[in-house]
Design a protein that fits this description.
seven-stranded mixed sheet; globular; about 270 residues; Rossmann fold; Elongation Factor Tu (Ef-tu), domain 3; 7 helices
């Protein structure tokens, strides 16, 4: 049975403009990256900054935010109803894309990138553009590493796995602690929020949290800053419009690594 969604008039008006209507694209290839992660290649190139996201419409199911992994790809982890439905799609199927939205990473000087799991997605195009000097890539086990071969060709790649099946045996923070992080002008981070918080705390302990750039993920309805479902502080800082990439000094006094909000906006 089709699902009827009722939107507030202001939100509806904001979305029903040509700029924010989904572009229907055709999937041209589906690449199995790991047992739980796939890359979807489509027939349109999007002009985006590394770190920006799009709203992916899976017809009849839902619309969800996803980071671009390239101008014509998204790399997705199976984690809910919409991604499960997307995983059933194959070459020739169609989905909708709105965006790109939000801001991206703006690195300068010597750059360190740190990714946990599928958090590699928004950082991957930054690395392939030649803007990352050192890249720490972490996941639970070697079978879940995404893009390791490609990254090794364009940056100094350091791998951490929780079970020690490849690279450093432990978390990305273990490799981070072995580096002189003060040598880096920018530290770009994406992954599980507690992992990102650990990096933030280490930067803050050295008084250089302003060098950090963190990509946050939140529940989103509109993606354009109208509905407020992705607010992360009492002043209304929105992940979709003011992020998803935030500098470390802007994350000191909000919900970062403390709370998430569900569809109702209630803290979880």
């Amino acid at each position: 049975m089709p699902i009827t969604v009722y939107l507030p008039e202001k939100l509806w008006d904001a979305l029903m403009t040509e700029e924010h209507m989904p572009v229907v694209i055709t999937i041209t290839a589906v690449i199995d990256e790991t047992p739980t992660i796939k890359t979807f290649v489509f027939d349109k190139l999007f002009d985006f900054l590394p770190g920006q996201f799009c709203m992916v419409w899976v017809p009849g199911v839902d619309e969800i935010p996803m980071a671009f992994s390239a101008a014509n790809t998204i790399t997705v982890m199976k984690a809910g109803d919409a991604t499960a439905a997307l995983f059933n799609h194959k070459a020739g199927d169609k989905i909708g894309i709105r965006g790109p939205y939000g801001n991206g990473f703006l690195p300068s000087g010597k750059v360190l990138a740190i990714a946990g799991g599928v958090g590699v997605t928004p950082l991957f195009p930054l690395a392939t553009a030649g803007e990352v000097d050192t890249f720490i890539l972490g996941t639970r086990t070697a079978d879940e590493l995404v893009f390791p071969e490609e990254l090794a060709k364009v940056t100094d790649l350091k791998i951490a796995t929780d079970d020690g099946t490849r690279g450093y045996h432990g978390f990305v923070t273990g490799i981070f602690d072995q580096l002189d992080v003060t040598e880096y002008d920018t530290v770009c981070v994406c992954g599980p929020e507690m992992m990102m918080r650990s990096i933030f705390d280490r930067l803050a302990a050295k008084g250089i949290e302003n060098r950090g750039q963190f990509s946050l993920h939140r529940y989103m309805k509109c993606g354009v800053g109208v509905c407020g479902s992705c607010c992360i502080d009492h002043e209304g800082l929105r992940v979709c419009r003011d992020g998803p990439v935030f500098t470390g000094d802007s994350l000191k006094d909000n919900e970062f690594a403390h709370h998430h909000r569900g569809p109702s906006g209630r803290r979880e």
